[in-house]
Amino acid sequence: MHQPLATPQVTDLLDFDRAHVWHPYSSALAPSTTRLVESANGIRLRLRETDGTVREVVDAMSSWWCAVHGYAVPQLDAAARDQLERMSHVMFGGLTNEPAIRLARALTERAPRADGYAPLEQVFLADSGSVSVEVALKLAWQAHAAAGRPRRTMFTIRGGYHGDTLAPMSVCDPLDGMHTLFRGVLPQQVFAPRPPAGLDADTPTYAEWERQVRALYAQHADDVAAVVLEPVLQGAGGMHIYPPQAVALLAALARESGALVIFDEIATGLGRTGTMWAADRCAVVPDIMCTGKALTGGYLTLAAVLCTRAVAEAVSSGSAGALMHGPTFMGNPLACAVACASLDLIGSHTLQRTERMQAELDEALDPARALDCVRDVRTLGAVGVIQLHEPVDVERVIAAALRRGVWVRPFRDLVYAMPPFVSDADDIALIGRAMVEAIQEVHG
């Protein structure tokens, strides 16, 4: 039985954390405020305060979008315990294991499919989402080099975010993204304008965007190795929803020029946008696809890269004779066992639930439209976004939402929710009310 932390322990832990622990996107000189999570269950986090009090709050972030089934999930707990009794890890070089094989089979069986496209049937298991994008880019570069036509350029759109490691940073938005500091040292890629907002492509704005993109692509077509996209929803680059037709257009341009198509479905896949994959909305199957985050339900870090047999054969026929990548923890049996159990929980009922969550988020966030500080309100599947006219006062909005029983972590000008799929209608209403009231309290 877990013993609650005593108040002196909480104070000591948080003092050490502030002095020595470097958190994401945080300054070591002026650390951002952190809260101590003592435990979690269902969709709620149990926060231990320095005064000894305990606050239970709904996690509207799904722990950065991965804990889609909530916390202390019996099926995932059982999968982890069962695998621990066998082995927690074994190297993947020259060895294999049952959970990794079962996971690869499950992913290939559930990968997006569409008429006229080759299936995704080769699986490379990686450590994290960012590493999976590294692998995807290396696949594209190696495939072209092996064919005797080395191509170096990645073609993408403004507003994207694909990870924090070096190569993925090069395909993140170079001007408004988080990695502008590194522009001088990153490979130079080609960025098309961000597509118009919304799912509707039948507009003059979209027609003009398409004209610009076709012209820009034509200038670089002979050197484009791959088109890289977060289909339909750009996540950390701004929670931007854009037309599936834009995805289909960019994929078509790639294939016409002999380039590959890479979909980053790390945030959008596994039901988050209302379909199993965002690619399903576009009737397009990429040559290479990355998935992660929800893959293990937030239990362990794991990602996967799926590709067509043609890509795998092209890479393997090159001078190296192999994909030049091999993480130490590749195919970790513990993570793969939990991922198999997580995928088992993502069925048709989950997709039906995320469809309903969109309507519930629409209703819950609708009052924000009446606030003068609000620029836009938008939803897609289990994603709800309130965009302000100004940058969010992050700490004050977090504190205001916590007082209302909800954990959110805004960024830039966005206060958003990506709740666990097991959230019910009352949970969604609470999340929406907390977001709207916190914005109104802080920004007026």
Automatic annotation (TrEMBL):
Pathway: Cofactor biosynthesis; biotin biosynthesis; 7,8-diaminononanoate from 8-amino-7-oxononanoate (SAM route): step 1/1. Its EC number is 2.6.1.62. Pyridoxal 5'-phosphate binds at G129, S130, D264, P327, T328. The modification N6-(pyridoxal phosphate)lysine is found at K293. Catalyzes the transfer of the alpha-amino group from S-adenosyl-L-methionine (SAM) to 7-keto-8-aminopelargonic acid (KAPA) to form 7,8-diaminopelargonic acid (DAPA). It is the only aminotransferase known to utilize SAM as an amino donor. Homodimer. This is Adenosylmethionine-8-amino-7-oxononanoate aminotransferase. It comes from Leekyejoonella antrihumi. The gene is bioA.
